[in-house]
Amino acid sequence: MQQVLFFSQSSENQMKVEAQEFMNEQTQALADQAEKFRRNPQRFMRRVLVDSAEGLKSLKRPLRMVAHSGVKLTEVSQTTLQSLIELQSEVVTSTLTAVAKRLERAASAEGVADLVLDQLEMLPATRDRIVDEAARGIEILKVAGRDVRKIANHTYATVTGRTDEELAVAKRSAARKVKRVVRKTRARARKLAA
Q1: pLDDT per position as a tens digit, 41-96
Q2: Are residues 132 and 101 in the same domain?
Q3: Nearest 5°: phi and psi at 183?
Q4: Average pLDDT over residues 177-185
Q5: What are the CB-based long-range contacts (under 8 Å, 24+) for 67-71?
Q6: Rounded CA gap, 77 and 81, in Å?
Q7: Pairwise CA distance, residues 188 & 116, whole Å
């Protein structure tokens, strides 16, 4: 238990040191900016305004891409909703048809045994219908998910200027880092427990 507390305290101390270093860097950068402003305020302000204007201009393309992606997402959601409504209509229609058929067979049954056998005879068809409808609903949602993922990846790649290959490499690299951290953490936990 003491080893775990020590590990926790050392991590906490390391975080404090890193936070202090970050604050020192930010303070130094602010002091440099203040010095530039003190030496030549007009030139400093002009540079800030030019940089701000360039920054605003650079936002045009990403904003257009995000807006275009919003239109595509709306299109995907409308198509998905239309497919789901059509599926729901078919489900309701087939359910009503099946219920009507069950009632007709129940009305024509000559006894309780015939009624039960007729109803049992219809169960596999009902089960198959329900499974098919559920599979169609899942497929609709899978297609929608793929479309949304494609739009998101394309938008991200365009806005950040990364290609799909670079994104895939970055994703694999991040996954490796996470696995490495998990392995190290498990190893440390085993050492502490031993």
Answers
A1: 787 778 877 888 887 777 777 778 888 888 999 999 999 999 999 999 999 999 99
A2: yes
A3: -60, -45
A4: 73
A5: 69/151, 69/152, 69/154, 69/155
A6: 6
A7: 64
d(CA 5, CA 158): 46
> What are 72's two structure tokens?
């595509």
Amino acid at position 41, single letter: P
**Structurally, how many domains does the chain consist of?**
2
Q: Where are the alpha helices (DSSP H) in 40-110?
A: 41-58, 60-108
Give, for 136, the enclosing helix (H) or strand (E).
Answer: helix 112-160
CA dihedral 179, 184, 185, 186 (to 10 degrees): 90
Same domain assignment for residues 114 and 170: no
Query: Which tokens belong to 109?
Result: 């049954």
**Residue 177: both structure tokens together:** 């880092």
